[in-house]
Amino acid sequence: MFKNFITDIFFDLDHTLWDFEKNSALTFEKILMESDIGVDLNDFLKVYVPANYAFWKLYREEKISKTELRYQRLKSVFDTLGHSISDDMIDHLADEYIAHLSSYEHLFPGTIELLDYLEPNYRLHIITNGFQEIQDKKLKNSKIEGYFEVVVNSELAGVKKPNPIIFELSIEMAGTQPNRSLMIGDSLEADIQGALNTGMHALHFNSDKGPTHDFCDMIHELSEIKTYL
Q1: Which of 7, 48, 57, 102 could form a disulfide with 137, with the two C-beta atoms 3.0–4.6 Å apart?
Q2: H-helix or E-strand containing 168?
Q3: Bridge partners of 125?
Q4: What rounded mean pLDDT belongs to the chain?
């Protein structure tokens, strides 16, 4: 479908190539145990996952700062669970989470095989809203950094997806054009609509089993990308 005109493929990182939920769960398992926080991991994650999503949406919309994101997503979980915890401990857990998250390296099934398949024929890049200090470590520790020519994060761009500026900067740095570029990501709002609004093509990796839509084609396994490219 895209073979005849796409030269550059831009991937989101978290929830698309790098298995955020699995790596995040392993990180919390470690830091909650080491800090002797008396909450059940499954109970914690059941509240944390949607809370993190909600606070990231606020951060993406410039409604809260990075510091507020890191604090509030934890504070809200402990409040919901009725677990008393000091602000100092929340700050400690927030620091420990960032320090250890990128040390885990689980990728979605088929990531390496897909990148090996695409690399000979396309230039590959990353556009991510994640924090620079850990996104680079994620790429390095999961041994996929060498596949990507351009890596643009929201701190470098000064804006977050779906703001068109981050897509325009990425296209400029890659030395390509929107109509020759394909964005692949998990977020309908940030990745898909953001890319389409910039004139890029898009392919939605529906890793969280969200609802169907008509914005672009949707896949549920990374291996399906091979049928388009």
Answers
A1: 102
A2: helix 164-174
A3: 10, 150
A4: 95
Beta carbons within 10 angstroms of residue 165's beta carbon: 14
Tokens of 151: 């890596």
Of 128, 112, 224, 147, the closest CA to residue 185 belongs to 128
Segment holding 57, helix H or strand E: helix 41-60
Task: Domain of residue 61: give its range.
Answer: 20-101
Contact 200, 6 (CB under 8 A): no
What are the DSSP E strand ranges found in the chain?
A: 8-11, 123-128, 150-153, 181-185, 201-205, 218-219
Q: Bridge-partner residues for 203, per DSSP?
A: 184
The pLDDT score that the predictor gives to residue 72 is 96
CA angle 116, 162, 101 (to 5 degrees): 60
What is the pLDDT, as a whole number, of residue 25?
A: 97
- End of a domain among 66, 86, 101? 101
pLDDT tens figures, 131-179: 888 899 999 999 999 999 999 999 999 999 999 999 999 999 999 999 9
Which residues have CB under 8 Å from 173's CB, separation 6+? 150, 152
Structure tokens at 144: 């996929």
- Please state the φ and ψ torsions of residue 123, each to the nearest 5 degrees: -90, 130
